[in-house]
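Could you please review the protein record set out just below?
***
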Amino acid sequence: MLTRTITGFLFIVAIVAGIYFNATIALCLFSLIVLLAVDEFYNLAKKSKEIKPIKFWGTITALSLMVTLCLLVLKIIEVKMTFIPILMLFITFLIELYRKKENPFINISYTVLGLLYIVLPFAMLFHLGYYIDNNFTDNYSFQIILGFFILLWTNDTGAYLAGRFFGKHKLFERISPKKTWEGSIGGGIVTIGGAFVLSIFFTNLNLTNWIVIAILIAVFGGLGDLVESMLKRSLKVKDSGKLLPGHGGILDRFDGLLLSVPFVYAYLHLIS
């Protein structure tokens, strides 16, 4: 428990500090997370004897895609520069052609899946740093990104406590036997309460929009957790990795984020 607490505290400090100061630090932080997460994803996939993702090329392509999309947000490069990671993505097929592995299209699929599953949500999250007063702007603000993390952590904590003390009815026993409806509903209620508090201090969004985001995080964050559990179960592993003592791997900490960010991003685009 002590190890888990210390690791969790340092993890939160690193995330908050990386987001708070400026866009450059946030870009570096998210790029590092993407590198670690993609590497972990490929190592996880390799647990199966049938899957041999193109780990080195996939990781380099992931970093290229992440940096390109973020530099596009910063308006440092033009849209036409996105052809670089796109071509790298298609080169994956040519590399697999010469690897002479069994199940080549399974290898290609897992290599590409690692990019889409991890890079796109973090690129979207970075872009949320430029959402101010119902519009995407040229100015960076930590409020929505940090608010997103706070609501995500609030949902995880609320779901854990509600499930521990009140959980009786299984939510999705086939994938995650410990999760309950009571835990999920409790997490959602606590997260909506957190949205009320956030709206007082983080004024880039009004109360209504913070509540909608809280609901999206509670629903799709929980589903994202189940999706990652489905991945681990299919590969017959308990944790995605061991990078974070007491917490498992990077994917174990960001599973809810990976599925909820696209829905929050889509919602904010719709109301712009």
About this structure: Strands lie at 131-132, 135-136, 170-172, 176-180.
